[in-house]
Amino acid sequence: MFVLGIDVSKDKLDCYISSEVEEKPKRSRQVQIENSSDGFEKLASKLSQKGLSIQSLTVVLEPTNTYHQELIYWLHAQKAMICLANPKDTYHFAKSLGRDSKTDRLDCFALAQFGLTRKLHFWQPPSKNIRKLDALVRQRARIIQNRQREVSRLGSLPAAEKKWIGPYIQKSIDLFRKQEEKIDAEIEALIAHDKELKATNKRLQTIPTVGKVIASYLIVLFSSRDFQNGAQAAAFCGLIPKEYQSGSSIKGKARITKRGPGKLRAALRMGVTAIEVVKTPSFLTEYYNRLIAAGKAKTCALCALARKIIVIAFAMWRDKTEYSFS
How far apart are CA 127 and CA 76, in angstroms? Predict the structure, then answer.
């Protein structure tokens, strides 16, 4: 099996081709190209010179904010097997190789070795509507973040400065609020005009604490990843405990791993906190109360509740079933 490790940056792609476990990289197996459609074609040409085709490769790369998007859709069109590796996993794997330095050349080599020695989960492109929903949800999160930043800035201004520049900041806040309303309407329209999305969205919102925002995050998450069960989805979201214990002298407090999408984790945290505040009777309320009665810390109980919601939501999404807990 030939594995192509690709370290992605804004302007260039550092690639390493390997078919065997190696202790250190060889320059003859490294290729650097532009991160553009012309660069992709150049990569195909260089591989052809080595007697390889994109179709015959397993490609391993780390997802970036947006810089990897055009590449993975091009690779998929060429019928390559694509693995979007978790950056935390590849970071620790690179450390296990005894690597102290960090360069793009070493990063792509480590990705290739990761692909040769680890069990991989392969990426499949989501539908056009899922891709659009993902982009809208991410942009909505950015708008809210910018609005909250401006609100904090306005609140922290001295009285004199608030009089001088407060109106300008308030205009920015109002603009972000209007953009948020507009993007919310576009998300609702997109879901309403897709029969399957509409049905899934309606089912997910029957889960206590899951509103339209969390439902949108969950739809994108489940549609974009090849999870086998809810536990895998919860692990991807960083909602599993990470213990720190050794013998009898070291016993640290368990914490969640915080892998995966932080925005979804934050939205879930806000949602499950509402269970404690509103105290509406439900299966999830009883589950939370049992954890507290068992001596679990409030933060731990809320994280466990968020994990439970992910597991339930995934089962409903996978089986197309309704929420049936009382």
Answer: 13
